[in-house]
Amino acid sequence: MTGLSKTLAGVAIWFATAFPVAAQQPIPAQAKVEAFHAILLNVMKQAKSRSVQERFKLLRPTVETSFDFKLMIALASGKHWRAASDAGKQDLKRAFSRFSVATYADRFSGFSGQSFKTLSVDQGPRRTKLIRTQITRPDDSPIPLTYVTRRREGEWRIVDVLVDDGISELAVRRSEYRNVLRDSGISGLIRLLNSKTNKLLRP
Q1: Average pLDDT over residues 22-49
Q2: Given phi > 0 = left and psi -120 to 50 = alpha, else beta, which region is 32?
Q3: Residue 75: Cβ within 10 Å count
Q4: Burial 139-152 (b: 16+ CB within 10 A, else e)
Q5: Considering only CA atoms, which of 172, 191, 169 is closest in space to residue 180?
Q6: What is the distance between the alpha carbons of residues 29 and 19, in angstroms, rounded to a whole number?
Q7: Is 159 exposed, middle or buried (0-12, 13-18, 19+ CB in 10 A)?
Q8: Fewest CB atoms less than 10 Å from the CB: which of 4, 25, 45, 155?
Q9: How far apart are CA 142 and CA 153, in angstroms?
Q10: Residue 64 lies in a domain
Q11: What does the alpha-carbon distance between residue 174 and residue 103 come to, in Å, rounded to a whole number?
């Protein structure tokens, strides 16, 4: 089994107990990813004249409608999510969402001729669709990005990003949060995410 196959198998296990999928007319998964890429590219082209806080504000609406942050943080926090109160879940989802948007605002801070290209749309495990793309760079090799998307409540959302055909961002987050959840629970993870976000958005 290849590294990518192992990653997708792990993602499939997480999805097995996830939220139910509603039988409504879906928004195409590819269109969702390409809309996300479009706003990223737009922000990259404006990066020199925009502060990180301004990039955050530009990215936030599209990023929050492109990703299923509720499912992602539920999977990343596991049993702690299931044991949390409704208010705790809402606060954690909000903190994770803000941190995720701030990470993109910080990471995509310049433009030197890059572009995004969709390579294929494949059926994935557990009713997911895999949108295989790449970031092309004028003076370097392309960076493969595979978006794992899933339909919930009639809409396709991104639930994981696989970098270089194998590194799952969701798995990385799950590993990063394990110790703080063990030691400080949901409230500790909320504090950590808010602290990281504040640092990323600091002028």
Answers
A1: 84
A2: alpha
A3: 22
A4: eeeeebbbbbbbbb
A5: 191
A6: 18
A7: buried
A8: 25
A9: 34
A10: yes
A11: 16
CATH classification at residue 121: 3.10.450.710
Domain total in the chain: 1
Q: What is the pLDDT of residues 138-174, one digit of tens each?
A: 989 999 999 999 998 889 999 999 998 689 999 999 9
Among candidate residues 66, 64, 59, the one with its CA nearest the CA of residue 27: 66
pTM above 0.70, yes or no: yes
CA 28 – CA 106 distance, rounded (Å): 28
Q: Name the helix (H) or strand (E) containing 121.
A: strand 115-123
- Judged against a pLDDT cut of 90, whether residue 8 lies above it is answered with no
**Which domain covers residue 166, as residue numbers?**
29-200
- What is the β-pairing status of strands 155-163 and 167-168? antiparallel
With a cut of 70, say whether residue 9 has pLDDT above it: no
Here the tokens at position 119 are 């390579």
Q: For residue 109, is it within any domain?
A: yes
**Residue 158 covered by a domain:** yes
Higher pLDDT residue, 195 or 26? 195
Given pLDDT bands bounded at 50, 70 and 90, which one contains residue 47? Answer: very high
Sheet architecture: strand order including 140-152? 115-123, 128-137, 140-152, 155-163, 167-168
Q: Is the pLDDT of residue 119 over 80?
A: yes
